[in-house]
Amino acid sequence: MNKYRPSVTGLIFNRVEWEPPAEVYWMPGNFCGALRAEFPVAEAAINEAAYTNGNWDGYGALPISIEAKNNALNAIRSILPVAPAPEINPNPNGTLSFEWETREGRAHMEIGRTRYSFYVNPRIGVPILLEGSVDDVTRIQGSLVASLLFPPAISAGSMTLIRYGADVRNSD
After folding, report:
1. Helix/strand/coil for 76
2. Domain residue ranges of the chain, discontinuous segments joined by +
């Protein structure tokens, strides 16, 4: 039995396959996420940020464990197909963070050896909070980032006015 219970804005869901809150604009299926060229760059950033020695920051930081690094790699592989690549940073408590920020809001995911925490705080709407086992990181988190922070551009319709006319007074 899975004891993981993600919470979203105070509500508890019993399974991972939850429906997003009504205020969330869910991305259409044609959103392609990060560019393919960004996948190896993001993985390299995780490998580079995963320091194996303690005190890597000079202030007593814990080392980033192999488990945390592997969990971050698995999470980024789940998120990148639907969301742009994040900024990737190590944390002094031995975890790795993914961060997104646009004029539409901010999102943050922290991945450790066994757990993750996630929030997205859109400019308009309520913040969404998720946490649980690292095994439960799916494309849902990426879809929330993509839909709330990187909404599709709305194109204006054509404004060209074409008039056809003929002068029938001088025609044969």
Report:
1. helix
2. 7-149
